[in-house]
Amino acid sequence: MDDLTDVVVATERLVVRPWRHAEAARLLDILSRVEVVQWLDDGPPQLMADLDEAHARIDRYRGLATAPPIGFWAVVPRATGMPVGSVLTLELPEAEAGEVEIGWHLHPDSWGQGWAREAAAAVLARAFDHGLDEVWALTHVTNHPSRAVASALGMRDLGVHTWWYDEPSQVFRANRTTHPRP
After folding, report:
1. Does residue 88 sit within a domain?
2. Which residue in 11, 110, 121, 134 has a CA-CA distance of 20 to 30 Å to 181?
């Protein structure tokens, strides 16, 4: 693996760090796939169109990392150095009390290998280490793999709600005082 100076968190198998412009083609490959993008927002999937958009998105992701624990990062296995997807902690839209969500999405060639759970567990622990009392995860109701990741993280399933998005979401919450550490 190349430069480790910008690592946000690391585990034995992976690092979480900012996306790099040299990885724009990989980001495009991930976000131009309907099987990934269908789970990311309300409404019809908005597929990434080209490398220019990928570069702009990388700049946007870097701009989101204003202060820890907020950010949007690449999930990078140490063995390959190539991002398999993203993990994030961001303030929820129209959050009344600064509620922060954790999220993840991976390239289909990386599904089922534990990358999302491992990266999200490390980022969740980081969020608590930076003083957050709770972290939320919202998934599409039919996104069973992401629901399984939230459950594997030990997040409490609060059911289906429309608290922050127009479409119903399966809502999970982790509390710093009661959440098991990885």
Report:
1. yes
2. 110
Pairing of strands 100-106, 85-91: antiparallel
Cβ contacts of 131 within 8 Å, gap of 6 or more: none
The number of distinct structural domains making up the chain is: 1
Tell me, yes or no, whether 3 lies in a domain: no
Q: What is the pLDDT of residues 54-107, one digit of tens each?
A: 999 999 999 998 889 999 999 999 999 999 999 999 999 888 888 999 999 999
Identify whether the C-beta of residue 83 lies closer than 8 Å to the C-beta of residue 60. Answer: no
User: Which amino acid belongs to residue 85?
Assistant: G
The CATH number for 34's domain is 3.40.630.30
CA distance 2 to 109: 22
